[in-house]
User: Fold these one by one.
Assistant:
Number 1:
Amino acid sequence: MNGLKNDGISEIVDGKRVIVKKPELLAPAGTLEKLKIAVRYGADAVYIGGQEYGLRSNAGNFTFEEMKEGVAFAKSYGAKVYVTTNIFAHNENIDGLEDYLRGIGEAGVTGIIVADPLIIETCRRVAPNVEVHLSTQQSLSNWRAVKYWKDEGLDRVVLARETTGEEMRLMKEKVDIEIETFIHGAMCIAYSGRCVLSNHMTARDSNRGGCCQSCRWDYNLVEMEDGEEMAITQEGDSPFAMSPKDLRLLQSIPGLIELGIDSLKIEGRMKSIHYVATVVGVYRKVIDAYCADPENFTIKDEWLEELEKCANRPAAPAFFAGTPSADEQLFGVHGKKASHDFTGLVVDYDEATQMVTLQQRNFFRPGDTVEFFGPNMNTFNQVVGTVVDEDGNELDAARHPLQIVRFKLDRPVSKDDMMRKGL
Amino acid sequence: MNKPELLVTPGSVDEIKKQIEAGADAFLIGEQRYGLRLAGEFNREQINEAVTLAQEYGKKVYVAVNAIFHNQIANELDDYVAFVKETGADALVFGDPAVIMAVRETTPGFPLHWSPETIATNYYTANYWGRRGAVRAVLARELSMDAIIEMKEHAEVEIEVQVHGMTCMFQSKRPLLGHYFEYMGNNMEIEKRQGTQNMLLHDEERSNKYPIYEDINGTHIMSPNDMCIIDELQDMVDAGIDSFKIDGVLQTEAYRIEVTKLYRKAIDLCIDNPDQYEDEKEQLLQAAEELQQEHRPLDSGFFFKETVY
């Protein structure tokens, strides 16, 4: 992995090996606010959903106007925007597709993420300047299928979550195409696209955005013997569950970079701005640190601790090193609380008075020790002093979501920095 | 009017003979290394025997190569598709485009059936795969009757529809049963249960029981009911649907044979005497109901069910 070969991935500069093929850090952006946060915290690209043809019916989902604004904002940071258009369409979804894709093209997005050949071919026809990336919904897990999509003219493929690092290596060797893979977040336990539990259990079409996450529910396992039902589990046993731990490939980022993977993707269009900021911020640091000096790179504990501050499930490396063990599933529990609460978003900071103006996101009160973090500063702790509202009235606590409050800080912060509180 | 093919999934070469007598026109067979959720395991020798037998009676054999492949097995596909062609089988059933690549290199022009299960949901995409070598699209089971007929109207490929049996709701690459037993500390029990196909997930809230089993392709969870639309075939026959499939996975041979007989009769009546079909279809449904195990009721799948998203 550390061979000093001319592999297109690294070069020797002043006697030191550096990575020249830096992968794209791709972040979820469920809303315009999340898009701006993701880009400000270091994402090279974001993926968003439009009003139709995406898989998150409940996410914010952008209008064409919002897409344009998002693209302009991203562009000012040199970042790209992709639109998830990855349903498996039914006949009734064909009408309107052309107009929709034209709208995406006109909004100036770089590419769309697609599963259905209907949408691939229609996009080519009506919005030929938009890149086409194959969605993970196609469960792409072998190099010959990668070659197929390359021959079909796709710009990039997103691999199935079931693909191992070694499998990625062969794909990269055999096929010259951009590869995007998930590095962090919640994931399907089924092959994506091949699960219709929601269709059966709740009459909601999982492959058109209706997934109700039935795989996270508990079941009883029984055995049929000669037409008789036999309970397999005893009273008090944990029920059968198939809920996977979340994916976290922080420790494998060096491996992924050395494989030449083109885009490293974070899951979670439904997640909060705090989650997006935290996760993007950590992976930005990891990628930059490794690329600058791969030989002396080590994983810092603080990065792992930082991820815990927004993690609502235990994490595991899933398929990267092979089929996951029983230990990578959740039995008897459904998740955990993150170690920190997101308590405020910095709206403004006045250097003269050292007063921060915050939008409240969770309860806090004077005397609490909180933590400030942001993309261009070192994280610091602060004991909250006197808190006042917009009109200068002193508050015994910041109780109301989105309430504007002010208090004095020991160190400067900037707009869009965040405040969190340990639990 | 074209008579639709009656396609079944036999468990063995022996069963093929009996299925022919029961009225089957075509057979879907294969081995789990390459094919998904098959009723029986056919090694290469048995596939040869099956094709020979079917051809003797003028019947067709399709070989399942519809797994989701990882690199290792993707590399074996040339050998396998060459073998399938050599047997004289009528088509390869695929979902993963790696199979198209293997056929292009090894057996160009060999007929393909596009069968990715849950994701075969619109006619444009069916025709897309038609332009890539598929002569038939096997439709998702989560479609309504109206959507199926609309697909047939626009399709440039043959359309196959499952009319009876269980359907897969979920496939994971992870060994979920094994993991659960391991978590419970019942390591001894895992061995005993490997290869068994009599486990059910009980969903108390919906009073449903979902069959669950593991094989080389991972863990499969199946529908709680068997779909049966033996009493609703006429519109699809009139629309010219090309193939009706009875999926007999996790069923007994005796069950499969009896179901074939009922559908043989139903299809023949739809073609030869629609009035008589109208008169007898309730009885046919009742006869099918009598074949069911107590915990597996019949339903009409998604044919008449509204799905939202």
Number 2:
Amino acid sequence: MIFASAPFVLLSVMLPLVSVLLALRADWQQIYRYCLPVLPLPALLMGLLAEPDWWLELPGLMIGGLWGVDDLRRAFLLLTATLWLIGGVFAIGYLKDHKLRRFCVFWALTLAGNLGLVIALDVASFYSFFALMTFAGYGLVVHEGTDEANRAGRVYLAMAVVGEMAILSGLLMAAQLAGSGLLADLPAAIADADRRWLIMLLLLAGFGVKAGLPLLHFWLPLAHPVAPTPASAVLSGAMIKAGLLGWLVTLPFGEVSLPDWGNGLVLLGAVGSLGGAALGLCQQRPKAVLAYSSISQMGLITLMVGAALANAEAAAPLFAVMALYVLHHGLAKGSLFLSTGMALPASRGGQWLMWLLIALPGLSLAGLPFTSGAASKLAMKELLKPDRFDFAMAAYLSVLMSAGAVATMLLVWRFLWVQRAGASTGSNPSFLWLGWGLATAASVVLFWLLPWHADVPQKAWLSAMVQDAWSLFWPILVATLLAAVALRLVKQR
Amino acid sequence: MSLSVLMPVFALMTSLLASVVLFALPEKGYRLRTTINLVAAVVKIALVAVMIWGIARGREYEAAFTMLPGVEFVLRADALSMLFAGLSALLWLLTTIYAVGYLEDSPNRSRFFGFFSLCVASTMGIALAGNLFTFFLFYEMLTLSTYPLVVHRGTRKALRAGRNYIIYTLTGGAVLLLAIAWLHGLVGDLRFQEGGHFAGVDPSLQAPLTIIFVLLMTGLGVKAALVPLHGWLPQAMVAPAPVSALLHAVAVVKAGAFGIIRVVFEVYGLEAAEAMGLLAGLALVAAFTIIYGSTRALYQIDLKRRLAFSTISQVSYIVLGLCLFGPLGVMGGLVHLVHQGIMKITLFFCAGNYAETLGVHRIDELDGAGKRMPGTSVAFTLGAFGMIGAPPLAGFITKWTMGAGALEVGMDWVVAVLVVSSLLNAAYFLPILHRLWFAEQQQAWPHERRWGRLETSPWLLWPPLVTAVLLVLAGILANVPFSPLSWAELIVLREVAL
């Protein structure tokens, strides 16, 4: 082993957990604040440097532990660690001294859960870290202590607990059939199960709560916006992906083709991506618009999940694309959320530059050529060609993707509009600049340097993008025209 | 006499002797009393540890003599005894430390600690009893030694609760005695034995054996607080906090649950009980108790009362586990004997700390207590999450093992019971945690005492912190030798004979 992964995998989870000791004394809280960006560093290094497919056995842990990283998890790990690091930098400047200690503790615990669930290969560790993230995340949601935050927290917690129970039942049944405590053995066992539908339903719904699946999403637009801005960024950028990862590592992808489930999920994905956008357009606050945009984007990913369930052979290549999409959306959404906490500079030129930089990750979500979104959308389009599938909803996939792109762009305009209405001018603490700058840089530039999944189709590469520029551009154009018309109508009234 | 005979006798005598000495001590001998208490507790832990080590390596410990013709007094240490004895010895030490701090200035401490030790001696006897007769002796001794603890404060409320307690438990004891006597008349003196005695029993005996089983479960179910025999438990929480802690975690409810385990495994035998159709009824009662206790807990505004109803629910996990009639289910039930003990004692210690330090008894007075008492509140939080069954804590290991056991034998409805119970647990614990950590303090604490820089007396603070660490370790290290789960596995392999 070139890179000593074993100590790193332990360190990446233990560092945030042990950091809680910094809360023992009140006068250490300033130190803790500055430690926040350090906490995800070992995990980030591991994501960048570790070679794929290795693991660490921890036989004494619960019912037998196994931690490690494969190609899929590596993308999730990179996103999670990067976003939490950037969020940590932003938090240094953002947080007030009031209740700082408590925030740091819940931040660190949520982070530990989020990182741990990515590297857990056994059921018990995975579920433990998932639960840690869920429960500690409550502390981030209700941190502000307002009535609104408490209400959002209650809904969050109630739905999360029900979700946890669904996950537990599903995992129990699957693990019992598999006769194994390893996640890798579950898909095959579920594929052969007599009550496959029940297990799949439990897992889909349980993880769907986190992933913002339509009808299980109610908590999301309440909770994501009320949290402090850096927490919103990690909630909507990284933690929402934990639900997706849960699906990807447990459901019987590649084992059997399940066209009915594919149909159902594509339908849910369509409702999520278009319905989420429609509701998002009605929102008055920038963070609420972004939260609905997350639901909408998860809906687009759900299309891929459905397709992968419908056709066993398509699963492996689709996983690579989903990993790419996860990375793209997480970084872009993180950057957008952080920008809601920024004040504009006084000079006109500075304002223009800032608006451009705020808009760029949004345009990337809509698939502007030569952005991370373009790469993800092209790769997705390449794999979701209807001739590869023969389930009923497959014919609508490309239409849905285009409609999704238009809807996304409309939401971005809506976001910029409400953001402008509430924007203030003034100076920002330097750590806000640094955090937001890092986030934008990560979304626009760094994305291209990260080690992606090895199997992403060549279509997604920068060099191939010129030919497809028009197919990427027209949804943006349509949405912009629609937005302009809407603006005219509003102004006339 | 060899050591293998003496060890169980010593283990029993440590607390018995301590109790006699403590009764004799003058009220003011604070240092001496504390020293005797602690030394006895540590010695007992050492004795039990030696026996656990020996039993793991296949040694046997037994002391027996004939009391009357046909009636033997048997003390025997097997793997199952050690599950209960280990829990009892460990928590006795911690509760003693806690009680020393809790009763600092209150009257009648000699009496209190005397009965306290006697109560622990009874649990040790119950753990080591080798037949039903011996078991019954200590079971009744437990009733009599806990009564003075329940009424210790001497208030009208305490006396009423005590009267209720003694009526319930003595009636239960009488039913138990009747059943044991009937069984004795039917088949003679039965030692506890692996696999039980009634495999392939004469069909003509089936009817009386079924009735006796119901009687035994009724007698034992009073202490184990099976619904509808649970009425004494919520009232008994008027007792001082260390007593409640011990009652709910080790002594009384566990004595009932442990008795049920002995009867099912080693008198009837799991297979025979299943074949006679006795387990199905017991499973239903246990499942109903689980849901009922949790539902009632939801409506309590007094913290200790809520915890009391939670106990009713949680102890039935143990009984339900046995009824699953498969190695994993039984393991889940057995391990919960220890897990529930550690978790519940943590919660009661913490409830006592809030009451002693802040004068807080009601849940709605707890707003902001996390800031004032962070150590206690961290312990409470861990205990509560353990009860909910959140991983990786002890409660999760129970739930996972029992759930897997239920699915293994096709009793899927048990998973639904576990899920509903967890949801209810979440519904009554999570709001408390919100109050502790996220609500702002509304008014001055009702009756606050200060201890300088510490949040409360160190005697009160350390025991819950230690048990909180234990409940985390019992979960995270469940697969390590000598963890509660590993020990339960050993019991199933050796003694349950499935």
